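Morning. Coffee machine broken again, so started the prediction first thing and wrote up yesterday's gels while waiting. Chain of 394 residues, entered below exactly as on the submission form.
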Amino acid sequence: MENKIIRLKKGKEESLLRRHPWVFSGAIASLPEGIEEGETAVVVSSAGDVLGTGHFQIGSIAVRILEFGDSGISEDFFSRRLQSAFALRQTLDLIRPDNDCFRLVHGEGDFLPGLVVDIYGDTAVVQAHSPGMHFERHRIAAALTELPGACIRNVYYKSETTLPYKARLDPENEYLAGSYDGNIATENGLQFNIDWMRGQKTGFFVDQRENRMLLQNYAKGRRVLNMFCYTGGFSVYAMRGGAEKVDSVDSSAKAAALTDANIELNFPGDNRHKTFATDAFRFLAEMEKDAYDLIVLDPPAFAKHRSALKNGLIGYRKLNAKAFEKIRPGGVLFTFSCSQVVTKEMFRLAVFSAAAQSRRKVRILHQLTQPADHPVDISHPEGEYLKGLVLYVE
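Came back before lunch.
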């Protein structure tokens, strides 16, 4: 079949020559007749030079480049890319008897734009964020089960909420290989129930693994509050770190129940922990001052799109201001933003404004980001989305 050609406007090839993997719709001079969502196309400059091959879709990001240059997409493309991604995780020493959950594919950071794959034991949970990856899902599942050394038996496809609505793909969450055979995974020697079928994202926030370990080091003897706890990851690590007590808060009763299950799985019968299914802002407003000397603020993205950026930054400022107001002197605050449109500088300014408003003395102990199994392509800085600060509050 003859390749479909997407031609760029004059001068619009510069970002691709710097190996940025996105082609924006405004850079395109002409599209081939009849091209459809998710099709593979060759992108050429105005002079006709081949720049790369990628998946086309309707929207602001019109093409996600899979291969730069004129080599095209080979039959073993997904096998090669997955082997490369797996080799990196082996280098990071993430595949161990005491750790069998990690991110295998982080989109552009693993040169597979539009694809996310998280591993939980022998199950891979796949999310497509582009129509092209949706249409390639069966090839991806086959490559995962054949990945040497990975021992992946089950592949669950979960893209009902991640694909562009306008594409009208009507994806179904389903097993592409294997079937359900248990949902307990191990992270740094702790066990977690992972609800990949009904939970948020792929079922667990593996991007906070190293930050949870850091919190464990601060937890001994402290009274810990874990806001927006979801499955209780920070709470479980705080318990192992020797916290005096741990309270977990989430507006979802289902999340609260999953947190309780994870605490019981690791610390059966331990009465140091309590869960509250209530609104986080209300809980912070009503709780006693000085009740906690370690607080975790890990909210969902307050600004998922640029249109929500202003309100999102106000939300981060208000949330952190309330934590500064209530935390005990000598307390430690772990605060995060996972909003991609909120830069590190914007988040810092929101937190600094909250500190100034509270009139507390605040020092930065750590500046945090996503772990190494969420790599950032050096040509695609947009891949760095998780920002965090660890603060000492006098």
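The mean pLDDT is 95. Going to sketch it on the whiteboard this afternoon.
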